Amino acid sequence: MQIELRSTARRLLFGCCVLLAIAGFAYLSTRAARAHAWAAGVDEWQIERAVALEPRNSDYWYRLGRWHLLINQDSVSALNAYNAAVRQNPHIADYYLEIARVALFANDHKQLTGALENALRVDPTTPSVNWEAANLYLAANEVDRALPLFRAASASSWEYRSPSVSLCWQVTHDVDRMVVALPRDVEAYSDFLRYLVSRRETAAADKLWIHIIALRQAVAPNASFLYLDSLLEQHRVADAVRAWRELAIISPEISSYLPQDGNLVVNPGFEQEILNDGFDWRITPFDKVTVQATTEDRYSGGHSLAVSFATSTTGNAGILQLVPVEPGASYSLSLAYKAEELEGAHGISVVVSDASTGQALGATDEILGSNPWREISRSFGWGWTGCPSFHGGEAFFMAAP
User: Fold this and answer.
1) Is the pLDDT of residue 42 over 60?
2) Are residues 61 and 210 in the same domain?
3) Which of 175, 200, 261, 269 is the most exposed place for a label (fewest CB within 10 A)?
4) How far apart are CA 274 and CA 268, in angstroms?
5) What are the beta bridge partners of residue 389?
6) Left (φ > 0), alpha (ψ -120 to 50) or beta: where does 234 sit?
7) What pLDDT does residue 381 have?
């Protein structure tokens, strides 16, 4: 539609309307800009001026409430400001969380729970909201309401997992209740298992292991090995063996590290990757001693274990495997070896000792010089651990099937 401005009066009227519109827009823009600048100030009067200029801005009311609570320590004025923020925008969870904090200080349980319910209603998925609400419920001794929120926060954000475990365990000290606070995944359970083992919470770790197995999810090896080592340190060999077999059920890659075909030695031909833990081979690095699986020279199968010494040395080469046995029974250790240029006063030998006492139960004859692959065997009694101990130049070791 076109408006004809034929008379001077009409032109003047139209120009005035345009100027008023521009002036109004400029005033509103300037006021908003000034309010924004005042709100960024560090003094109370600056934030109050921002609220006066833009009373419908919920963030300015929120900032004023924070000032009253944290600086002035005036919870009444803070609560009034937070409520004003909610009236302007009822869809921000942080406003309700601040109201809940004020209610906690005032010991107003009804207001606290109402504010937290509103916060979770408007924002039920943000991890930080779940975390703050969980902590406020916990501070109000509403443990059962807090635990599921800790789970929600931990499930969505890794940063909350470790503090959730520590905080919830201090409050509950109950594995069954802790399960409510943990995301239902094996990584969260494994983190908790590591926490319990590190604190030597033996009974709790045993109970949590049952929950882990019930998940039927592959377990992180480092957490399960830590638990197994704790059982062995307590001389609970039967429990360690049971846990190892349970681990093999839920973690198929471990099933190849079970005794097979009547041979109690695990991974006897070094065909599998050496786990360096559990009931597989454990290799401790020593200076001037190199230990590695190799395919260059082997007796049977595809691999052997090569041990090289940079110089003549004595002591343990750092190769060990724990083998559970029955007390009082007799066992035979069979192996094949090849030696190259072993020179010195002493050769190499395989030593078998009791894992509980460290007492040596016997050893193979010392091997010196050079010779092709040979098989040797030795019988032992009582509980023992296979512990190859090498001295000399270079040797290949493989426990034969």
Assistant:
1) no
2) yes
3) 261
4) 11
5) 349
6) alpha
7) 65
Reply yes or no on whether the pLDDT at 11 is more than 60: no
Q: Is residue 242 part of a domain?
A: yes
The predicted model scores a pTM of: 0.77
Count of domains forming the chain: 2
State the SS3 of the chain: CCCCCCCHHHHHHHHHHHHHHHHHHHHHHHHHHHHHHHHCCCCHHHHHHHHHHCCCCHHHHHHHHHHHHHCCCCHHHHHHHHHHHHHHCCCCHHHHHHHHHHHHHCCCHHHHHHHHHHHHHHCCCCHHHHHHHHHHHHHCCCHHHHHHHHHHHHHHCHHHHHHHHHHHHHHHCCHHHHHHHCCCCHHHHHHHHHHHHHCCCHHHHHHHHHHHHHHCCCCCHHHHHHHHHHHHHCCCHHHHHHHHHHHHHHCHHHHHHCCECCECCCCCCCCCCCCCCCCCCEECCECCEEEEEECCCCCCCCCEEEEEECCCCCCCCCEEECCCCCCCCEEEEEEEEEEEEECCCCCEEEEEECCCCCCEEEECCCECEEEEEEEEEEEEECCCEEEEECCCCEEEEECCC
What's the CATH code of the domain at 82?
A: 1.25.40.10
Chain segment 251-268, per-residue pLDDT in tens: 888 888 999 888 888 998
Separation CA 180–CA 177 (nearest Å): 5
35 and 84, same domain (yes or no): yes
